[in-house]
Design brief:
The complex is a heterodimer of chains A (about 90) and B (about 220). By secondary structure, chain A is mostly helical. Helices cover about 80% and strands about 0% of the residues of chain A. Chain A contains 3 helices and no strands. In chain A, about 20% of the residues are buried. Classes of the chains: A mainly alpha (about 90), B mainly alpha (about 220).
């Protein structure tokens, strides 16, 4: 990875940080703000993992391991939320 | 990633077929470790999310006590440190030992800056009586609401605390890399480059955790 493209990624990350701080001060409903803040965080995470951690250049097995981390994290959130967030339904 | 140029291939241990397999194993090992770290922090994030939805208004009120400017500044410091860490890897892959040391040193200075700002924040929060178990006190707030806000601060101190422990561990390894590499003039060996690569992956991960802590902890209370 060349220093130039690293710098580009860094500048995009700083712009996204400014965006997330800006969004937080906008007069939006709370849940929209959380969604927007997390969406920006996911975008930042993708840049860090893809470019700084060079997951783009990695082989299959490393990608499977990284994907497994993400998959189990989703499982952790989905099953826990499936219980706690639906207790007052019906 | 395999390097090119003037690098020295040092002897490969008996259980590896060749240099390439050894590098793949080292790389996969650190990624496996980071996957377990995802689970470790993930549990805290899930716990936070559940209580954040249950005690929504109290968590928002508690979040207003945090310093958004310092939280944002620390994010910038950490993203910048990650950039210089990526530059160190870039130098190491090109066989440039001095360049790697220079970038690692900048990363270390930024890491210490981050920890300094965090320590300042914690001490301010201590003086504002916001530390659960030590001096938590919110005068004028109803007992139940104060209890929920105290829970927010439990999550805040545990999550930022564990994150800081990861920063300190990383800063320790970076210091060692700087000391080790600044004494040597000969071209980098494969082992030395792998060490820098592995430390960088860990460092970026610690940055990644903070990227999610910022909106969840600091930005919840703004309007």
């Amino acid at each position: 990875m060349k220093t130039f493209s690293l710098l580009t990624v860094y500048l995009i990350l700083v712009a996204l940080l400014a965006a997330t701080l800006g969004i937080a001060y906008l007069p939006l409903p709370g849940h929209l703000k959380i969604a927007a803040g997390l969406a920006v965080a996911v975008a930042k995470a993708a840049l860090i993992v893809g470019y700084f951690m060079q997951l783009r250049d990695q082989r299959g097995l490393v990608r499977v391991f990284a994907g497994a981390g993400l998959f189990w994290l989703c499982l952790l959130f989905a099953l826990t939320a499936g219980d706690y967030l639906t207790r007052n339904w019906g | 990633m395999r390097a090119s140029g003037s690098e020295i291939d040092d002897p490969v241990a008996a259980h590896f077929a060749d240099q390439e397999q050894r590098e793949d194993a080292a790389n996969l090992g650190i990624w496996l470790f980071l996957t377990t770290e995802v689970m470790f922090f993930g549990a805290l994030f899930v716990g936070f999310t559940i209580y954040r939805t249950h005690y929504s208004s109290d968590f928002v009120a508690a979040s207003r006590h945090l310093d958004v400017f310092l939280g944002g500044l620390n994010t910038l410091v950490l993203l910048t440190s990650s950039f210089f860490m990526a530059c160190a890897v870039c130098c190491a892959n090109a066989g440039n030992r001095r360049g790697a040391v220079r970038n690692l040193a900048i990363t270390l200075v930024l890491a210490i800056g981050f920890l300094g700002i965090k320590a300042y924040e914690w001490s301010t929060e201590y003086h504002h009586h916001l530390v659960p178990g030590l001096n938590f006190d919110l005068p004028g707030v109803a007992t139940q609401s104060a209890a929920h806000q105290q829970l927010f601060f439990c999550f805040y101190f545990i999550m930022t605390g564990i994150h800081a422990v990861h920063m300190i561990a990383g800063a320790g390894v970076i210091s060692w890399l700087i000391v080790h590499n600044s004494r040597r003039r000969e071209p980098l060996t494969a082992t030395e480059r792998i060490r820098i690569d592995a430390t960088a992956l860990y460092w970026h991960f610690v940055d990644l955790v903070w990227v999610f802590l910022l909106p969840l902890l600091y930005l919840a209370g703004l309007d």
